[in-house]
Design brief:
Helix content: 25-40%
Radius of gyration: 21 Å
Bound molecules: pyridoxal-5'-phosphate
Number of domains: 2
Number of helices: 13
Strand content: 15-25%
CATH class of the largest domain: Alpha Beta
Strand order of the largest sheet: 4-12-11-10-7-5-6
Length: 396
């Protein structure tokens, strides 16, 4: 099919929940995508921070083919070897002791919210409030949009579930003041993604951990976007010397195959009991086998180290932009999760980059986001910067 036909068919039959760009990728390889007409694009969106190993990674393809030919799904009525092995790898490489598997980031956060509420009911208490940050993003289910500290995701879907309180990010005093006798948990992204690429301040997260310990609250880190090597460490919390009680993951875990996970540390691991939570597809043999292949690459393939090294180079090059372009306001981020805030709308920049063969996206209206595959080379970063600078120069 040609791009025009794909677009027409989609517009006719797909609910219009997305404002899409007129671009139809049909094939990918590493950091490159090809559209229906065979044109090549350098992919610095990576399926929204999903394709950590790039497109069509041979180890992922092999895992899918082998497992699909062996056993795809059986339900959680039974014991599943790839699920058990994946949980073991996640636990052995994190601060967690047990894992719950699901299919997306929002589902992982739903599980965390339910766990926190059940935790709040322990010892006959009635605690159910979860404090989250303004500008946060936690997904699109009803509880996840309520946890999300941005009204634009909530409007029109009221009444929202009760029990969420919002505080400004990186403001420890405001957080301390928001804790009430009903608070059971604090939920944060160590690096806010959709809210504009804002890394937490180390003192902030350390202070939040202290507060949680003092008040007996669960600390939940949503690492759906910033986890699994994106920041140049396997988990973003490892930059901060702070361990959460609950950690949520999705996006890169399956490199594009849908899988999410909620990891629970010692204080949280025994809260949910048989019957408390479930997912038909969650942790099925195929999804887990794929995630095992992804983690093997992340842990042993030098991928995370590459993200740290190339991310530092990319950041340092981007930091030169504010001095050269008056409308570039600030460069932020960690590892290969980088944002460039403009004083003007970002969408024309995104579109002009795409016309020149570079895919980036915009968070909010003014922030360009760069989340390339973690296997990206320095040469690809140079190529992306060349295109970006051509576009920025044309706007000056
Ligand atoms: N949490 C964070 C930090 C995210 O960035 C996202 C998606 O962008 C989600 C949760 C929701 O994940 P999903 O779209 O897989 O439900």
């Amino acid at each position: 099919m040609h791009s025009a036909e794909i677009i027409a068919l989609s517009d006719q039959y797909i609910l219009p929940t997305y404002g899409r760009l007129p671009f139809c990728p049909v094939r990918g390889e590493g950091a490159l995508l090809y559209d229906a007409e065979g044109r090549e694009y350098l992919d610095f969106v990576a399926g929204l921070a999903v394709n950590a190993l790039g497109h069509a990674h041979p180890a992922v393809t092999r895992a899918i083919c082998e497992q699909a030919g062996q056993l795809m799904h059986v339900s959680n009525l039974y014991y599943i070897e790839p699920q058990a092995r994946l949980a073991q790898v996640l636990v052995q490489n994190s601060c967690a002791s047990k894992v719950f598997f699901c299919n997306s980031g929002a589902e992982a956060n739903e599980a965390a919210i339910k766990l926190a509420r059940k935790f709040g009911k322990q010892e006959g208490r009635h605690r159910y409030e979860i404090i989250t940050a303004r500008q946060s993003f936690h997904g699109r289910t009803l509880a996840a949009i309520t946890a999300t500290g941005q009204p634009k995701y909530q409007q029109g879907f009221e009444p929202l579930p009760e029990g969420f309180t919002y505080v400004p990010f990186n403001d420890l005093e405001a957080l301390a003041a928001a804790i009430s006798p009903r608070t059971c948990a604090i939920m944060l992204e160590p690096v806010q993604g959709e809210g504009g690429v804002y890394p937490a301040d180390p003192h902030y997260l350390q202070g939040v951990r202290r507060l949680c310990d003092e008040k007996g609250l669960l600390l939940i880190f949503d690492e759906v976007q910033c986890g699994l090597g994106r920041t140049g460490r396997l988990f973003a919390y490892q930059h901060y010397g702070v361990e959460p009680d609950v950690l949520t993951l999705a996006k890169a875990l399956g490199n594009g195959f849908p899988i999410g996970a909620m990891l629970a540390g010692p204080r949280a691991a025994n809260v949910l009991q048989p019957g408390d939570h479930a997912s038909t597809f969650g942790g099925n043999p195929l999804a887990c086998r794929v995630a095992l292949a992804v983690l093997e690459q992340l842990l042993d393939g030098g991928v995370v180290e590459n993200a740290a090294r190339v991310g530092a180079y990319f950041f340092q090059r981007l930091q030169q932009l504010p001095a050269r372009y008056s409308f570039v306001r600030q460069v932020r981020g960690l590892g290969l999760m980088l944002g460039v805030e403009l004083t003007r709308e970002g969408r024309p920049v995104v579109e002009a980059c795409r016309e020149r063969g570079l895919l980036i996206n915009c968070v909010g209206t003014h922030i360009l986001r760069f989340v390339p595959p973690l296997i990206i080379s320095q040469a690809d970063v140079d190529r992306a910067l060349e295109i970006l600078e051509q576009v920025l120069s044309s706007l000056s």
